[in-house]
Amino acid sequence: MREELVRRHRRVSVVRLRIGIVLVAVVMSFFGARLFQLQGIDPGSYASMSRERGLETEILPARRGAILDRNGAPLAESVDGLMVVADPLETKPHAPTIARMVASSLDVDYFEVLGRLQREDTRFQYIARRVPAAIAERVVEEVAEAGYKGLSTRRDPVRTYPAKDVAANLLGFTGAEGQAMGGLELAFDTHLDGVDGKATYEVGSGGARLPLGDNSIEQPRDGKDLELTIDSDVQWYVQRVLRQTVEQSGGESGAAVALDVRTGQVLALADHPTFDANAPLLSPEADLGSRALSDVYEPGSVQKVLTAAALLDAGKVTPQTKITVPGELPRADRVINDYWQHDRLRLTFAGVLAKSSNIGTVLAADELSSAELRDYLARFGLGSRTGVGVGGEARGLLPKAERWRPINHDTISFGQGVSVNVLQMAAAVNTIANDGVYISPSVIRGSAVDENGNHVGTDNARSTRVISEEAARATAEMMETVTRAEGGTAPQAAIEGYRVAGKTGTAQRVDAECACYRGFTVSFAGFAPADDPRFVVYVVVQDPSNGGGGGSVGGPAFRQITSFLLRKYAVPPTGARPSRLPLEW
């Protein structure tokens, strides 16, 4: 009996073993088939799907290049800020409330934030970029204190303008998301802007990073710095003098330029009204650009120095040429007058410029044909952009000579019927100061490529001889008579101890609304020392309400700015005797 039981037990064990072996074989066959499918049939797609389900990507922000003045002082720079980021796995349950808290504290759209907080395919979403650290940390803390999880911060550089309004109209600014919004920031965005990197890492089912998982990093590429010719100290001072000048004269706006004569480098390019580049939306849109580059106006009598230089270069006159100037001059269907009433005057050509006589200028300009005069003005740069690389620069207007009627020849000779921008006219006057050689002005030191693909900067400045050295020096000597106390129109522009060359300008102002003349543009352009020029300064004020002209409004501003430059750069007086050209005969 016992032996029978043992035999039955053995048969049952054998059967169980066989069944187990069969089951193991079936299971192993299944795994083998699955392994074959994964490794043999479509290994790439399955591996990719596995990785995608467990990969997260994090932005590594690049730093935007700084904009520096000629001495390396930052005018625009990127400082440490933070981005606010979210883990949607944790924020989704309370997304509406968190979105409302974030939108009320940051400049972000509620519905866009809500969508990011509710994403199901990722555990990383950025909510706001380039947020000042204190603000970003406060928002995250407030959400956490309310009992909600999932918000945190990461490093993200913020654009700032340390000097606030200094050169703001030239620099432009950036938006909340770091996008360039005008000025040099926009014109050289490709140069300044970096390329964000990214970190990709593998996470487990709970969202924790796997130490031995698939991890890769693409390092960010920071933007390149942009160095300007601007001297921030000079820029600050010029802006303050310009503001005072515009406000005291009751003007609508103003602009001023300071140039290094020998290089054409712009030391200051100022506008008023201006704005704080850190908070541009607090200022009217009309004040955010550079009027010195974008606005055009008729230069008035400052252009007489270009007409005079052309006549001297062509050998048509000398500073001592005698001109009889009547009280009024009938021309075609018009009558040309001077700004002051007078009987017949006997002036030298130097006297015509010193007293800014329209009539005397027209009579002298008769010696040049319209084609000849226009050619000279074009060579001085009128009708063409300076090409400094800032977007929105106006070309101005210099009509083709074949379209000139006799009256156009007359009015253009003394600065009406032609339009310029401030930098354009300053560069033209600089040609006279630079012994007759035009140098294209530069605001960029070295070389950079602007938004239109043009290579600009001091390395690319072009120079062209416009008039002879003798004609330039004769013109400069005539311009000295303008600042003389006896007979000149701008003794307020004189600087004690220095020889100063200058020219006043007062022109009727075109009003686009009525397509007529309404108001005036007053200006003063000059350089010092007159016999060895170092700096050109040009000041323009639109529509002053105090009745002042180029001499009384622009002259004092010129004197202040030029005096500052001479002191700062330690330029001594030449010691030469000033011009004593006769004004009458």
From TrEMBL:
Domain Penicillin-binding protein dimerisation: start-end pairs: 60-209
Localization (cell): Membrane
Domain of life: Bacteria
Keyword Membrane applies: yes
Domain Penicillin-binding protein transpeptidase: 254-562
GO annotation (BP), single: cell division
Protein's UniProt name: Cell division protein FtsI (Penicillin-binding protein 3)
Pfam families: PBP_dimer, Transpeptidase
Family named by the database record: Belongs to the transpeptidase family.
TM ranges: 12-33
Keywords, in A-Z order: Cell cycle, Cell division, Membrane, Transmembrane, Transmembrane helix
SUPFAM superfamilies, per database record: beta-lactamase/transpeptidase-like (SSF56601), Penicillin binding protein dimerisation domain (SSF56519)
